[in-house]
Structures are given as structure tokens and as C-alpha cells.
Amino acid sequence: MRTVRGFLLRWIAFAAVLVGWQFVAAAVAHPFFPAPSEILDAARRMWFSGPADEAFLTAAARDNLAATIARVLGGWAIAVVLGVVVGTACGLSRTVHTAAAPLFAFFRSLPLPALVPVFVLICTLGTQMVLTVIVCGAVWAVLLNTVDGVRTVDQVKIETALAYRLPFSHRLFGIVLPAALPKIFAGLRVSLSQALLLAVVAELFAANGGLGDQLRDARNRFEFAEMWAVVVMLGVLGYLFNMILLAVEKRALGWHRAAGLAYR
Hints:
Layout: H1 2-28, H2 36-47, H3 59-92, H4 94-108, H5 112-122, H6 127-151, H7 155-163, H8 168-206, H9 211-220, H10 224-252, H11 254-263
Helix pairs in contact: 2-10, 3-4, 3-6, 3-8, 3-9, 5-6, 5-8, 6-8, 8-9, 8-10, 9-10
């Protein structure tokens, strides 16, 4: 009953926001602030009004969506691997962590969107540049959360494993990483949203295809409803990414929640 009530509450709030947006936009009548009905009509014309033989989405919409999704997931996957590997190494070694902490603090504070023109100059335009921007921006949430998760593993478990002379690989994959998974997943969720944001920013500058390229094209043609339609599509894409990752997290960390309930 609580689940149904929460579901209804979320969607009623969403519908109320849409209705309020519609009334405010109609009252203001500003070209930069179109109503949801105009945005939906622009989305229909952009993505759902192709030839009759095209199922659901038009070919152009599928290509743009596929390009952005592939870049986001590819760059995010590289960032996850780098973040977990480097973060685990830093978390296990106090010396490495002490030496690398100032570098991490410096590089993570750099505004990646402002550095996109630099990546345009040093990387090949297109997918390579977009992936570079995503990796450089999304890696920090995973890396720092991995470091924090590894460093907060219960030392009693580590000392017990050492007393039983368990191999390093058993301690790493059987104790350290499972105990750090809750914080690693928190970093994964943050980094995935950052990857989507950085992909669109990079595509706005220099990329063929993708939602960022479509957003730039709509801006150049002063089609503000189409711009908002692309923004809404990005929001939907981010929501779906988050829901999928939450489902994976719930399944992967079921043992953690069960242990917490048992402890209570």
C-alpha cells in the first residue's frame, strides 16, 4: 500500500508541475519559454513523424539517440574501470593516498565544460573527443567513493583474514571490494549523470550526431521548442539510466540490506 501511495504521489506531483508549466507558459507567452504542449508537438515532428515504414522513432532520432547512448556508456565504462582500479590502490595504501590526495583535489576541481575547447584542440573531433571529456569528468566520483569505501572496511575482518593467511586476491575480492560496494555504487550513480551531461556538452562543441549536435542545430535555427524537446529527451534518458542502475544496485547489494536488517 505504501508503494502504491508513493507511486501515485510522484506522478501526481509530476502532472501538477506540467499543468502549472502549461498555464504559466500560456500566460507569459515568451518564445524562449514554450508550453509543454508545444514541446510535445516539436518532439512529435522531430522524432515520430517519419516515413510509415519506420517503427516508433525516425531513423534520424534512432541515430542521434544511439550515438549519445554509446558515447555515454562507453566513456562511463572506462571511467568506472579507472576509478575502481586507482581508487582501490589508493585506498589500500596510505602512502599512495597521501601522495595522490593533492593531485586528486586539484584535478577534480577543474571545470570540465570550460576545458572542452582544450580537448577539441588536442583530440580528434568526434567520438574520441567526447569519450575523453566523459572519462576525465566522470572518473572522480567513482575514484573518490572507491577510496572512501576501501579505507572504511572493518579492520577486524582484514586482520582476521591476515591471521588465517588468506591470499591477497581473496582479501581483495572477498572482503575489501564487497564491503566497499555500497559507496562505489553511490559513485556510479553520480558519475553516470555526469557522463550524460558531459557527453551533451562535448557534442555541442564538436561532434557529428548525438543529442548535443541536434540541440546545437535547433539553436542555430532558433527553434526553441525543438531545443526544449531535446532537453526533455535528455531528462528522460537520465531518468532511465538512473532507474536501471538502481535496479542493478538493489540486486547487487541485496545481501547488504539483508545484513543491515538482521543487525537491527
